[in-house]
Input
Amino acid sequence: MSEKLSHVEDIKTKSDGLRGTLKESLNDNHTGGLRPDDEVLVKFHGMYVQDDRDRRAERLEKKLDKLYSFMLRLRIPGGIITADQWLASHEISEQYGTGTIKITTRQTIQLHGLLKHQLRPTIQAFNLAKLDSIAACGDVNRNVITSAHPQVSPLHQEVYEYADKISDLLLPKTNAYYEVWIDGEKIYERSQEADPLYQDRYLPRKFKIAVAIPPTNDVDVFANDLGLIAIIENNELKGFNIVVGGGMATTHGNPDTYSRLGSVLGFTDTEEKTLKAVYEVATIQRDFGNRSDRKFSRLRYTIDKMTVPGFKAELEKRIGFELLPERPYEFTERTDRYGWQQNFENKWYYTLFVENGVIKPDQKQFLYEVAQLKVSNFIFTGNQNLILGEIDEAGKNAVESLLIKYSINKDDSALRKNSMACVALPTCPLALAEAQRYLPELVTKIEPFLEKYKLQDEEISIRMTGCPNGCGRPYVSELGFIGTAPGQYNFMLGGDRFGERLNKVYKEKLNEAEILTEVDTLLGLYINERTEGETLGDFGHRKFFAGN
Output
């Protein structure tokens, strides 16, 4: 007997191609939210329904509805937009939402605080700028990310183009997005929107793809459902190692849930074979993924149920050829290349540090004036930063003047520059603790310890999430903090510097004072007991977890 499908599966199959009753929900002026089923469907259109949790008690006391708003996330494969598109995004953010632009860990931007009546005009304005939010959320392939800095390789552009090709290949075929948000008219009958990939059920859960260009692993390729590792030899792209089954989310108190790093299945040596493999990995997840319990519906659980050899055999059957043996590669960095850098065509790039992806008012005005110069494109990184790219010498001088005008060059610690946090409170409904609002404060309190032990320049990665869902990829950091309750975190330790080893629980349910005591003690041990060249993550793994 087949397992009972989850309620979300029923919503998807009955949604008329993701249309549901979204139009009716949008026209309902009795609430700032949507009908329950439409809250599920709107994710496929790149939005989440949220509310201000800081004000829930106050509004409940006054017998008011929750203070609903929406988060809108764009689909930007590879994370590159033009100066004109940045200007449009700036103007839209000024007119709608909170005014803040947030860079995500998936090389795109999102706006928070949009009210229901602002959704259509916001999406229509982005559409005019040739930007959309189709499939930025939901049980589909999400924004495809790729190594950000063109300085990594002369073939960066060739590899980057795969992000766009994969995004197009795995895009849902329904026209619901344009009907609901752009012109309000039905374009095709559902029967004309045949979708061989997603059919009428879509995927069991979200699906994330990353393309890495060694020696940098800025995309955390092993933390994705599907990863491509570019193999470049003698200045020629030879193909990709195919990695499957990575993922971060766990559930507190449920030991059957776990994080997993992706497994390398093999190598593809042509574009046709690579795209075929990508597509069929998605179809296997569609057909074999768990649709009854969403806690176990990501690809990693599918693979572990099938086994890696079993999954590979099914993939090779579907693609019609055998994968070649894995090619050698090496990752030697994961952080972004800050400040001015020059690529192989002598074009200049400036990487701006954006703490936890939240663009501050002075940075926003600086970027607005840079965009007005029309001397640069804008590249979002998987580390939530922003690269101003393809700048000539004259443009560099103009940007440099604006850097001075807005005092942008600040002497941030290496730890701060390697920090990452999810949004968490007050808008994320899953958050158990603070993250984005609190991590900068915690880093400030840790920095004196770094000075004490002369570790200010050490590229230690620190990541924090408000729940175990893993949106900030905390399980592949050297210092990880996972929210368990307000002001309380599990301390994760032992991840490596380049995202190739998961960390483990070092201490549970610590408050701030306990975290600071533990970090101080840990750094002292590290200084006294480390071996030559040993990173903090490697030291933590060796001392506390080796042999476990």
User: Anything to note?
Assistant: The mean pLDDT is 96. Residues 72 and 313 are 39 Å apart (CA to CA). The first strand starts at residue 47 and ends at 51. The radius of gyration is 23 Å.
